[in-house]
Amino acid sequence: xxxxxxxxxxxxxxxxxxxxxxxxxxxxxxxxxxxxxxxxxxxxxxxxxxxxxxxxxxxxxxxxxxxxxxxxxxxxxxxxxxxxxxxxxxxxxxxxxxxxxxxxxxxxxxxxxxxxxxxxxxxxxxxxxxxxxxxxxxxxxxxxxxxxxxxxxxxxxxxxxxxxxxxxxxxxxxxxxxxxxxxxxxxxxxxxxxxxxxxxxxxxxxxxxxxxxxxxxxxxxxxxxxxxxxxxxxxxxxxxxxxxxxxxxxxxxxxxxxxxxxxxxxxxxxxxxxxxxxxxxxxxxxxxxxxxxxxxxxxxxxxxxxxxxxxxxxxxxxxxxxxxx
Length: 325
Description:
The chain is an all-alpha fold. 75% of the residues lie in helices and 1% in strands. A hairpin with a 2-residue loop joins strand 1 and strand 2. It starts with a helix and ends with a helix.
């Protein structure tokens, strides 16, 4: 059995029901909109975010979920999908998960409007049901994601990222959404409880580990089909590179920065940078940091009694680290 299927097992019924509710939450009177939302739903990814919502809810409330849990999962998926559609426009990307992106098929104008539509649908789903506590969790996540993206763009221009700034960028850009999933799951069944903050922290730690794992893929992995050095070509400062830049000689540092600023399209030079980072322990350093975040996330889980939901969350934490793509 695939690891994702194993993780999903204790919430298989909820995930099936969620898919029906999620499609309904996107419905519209506009035929074009429905055609596009069907296209989105039929090309879904692993659905890790709703899985976090249901597993956390069931872990903190003895296997129980309620309508708020389903709404929370739908809201997070609506807003996540909206950000992906907008990201593809921003990045001028024609593919998403191996399929054509919305902007490639229907052009940028429609893609931006679809993203806006999904965002508003998510917000209204919460407002119409008076889920204001869930809405606050989501809204904070959207604000942080936007800030993280802009902070990364600003720093990419100057290439002056310290490790602390890097952590702040990935916390906002990636970890904040997973943190929102976990705190939403807890808030849906145990409003105003301590579980909400402890699960938020748990999700944030997994998100940090998840992003560092993504950074490591840039240094070579055949399975993901992503060419190596893509982050360097896009002048994205990732942890292996930041560590090496801050721990090499002045001369080597200026060569690295010059390579990224002025020679990032030169395949040979990019390969030299990759090898330099590998030779100067950049990857080992990043792997250790990733494992620290993983360890801290597992520590939080240990405070909960044993259950199949807790076991699935432990599997999920390890899957984030061990995945091949």
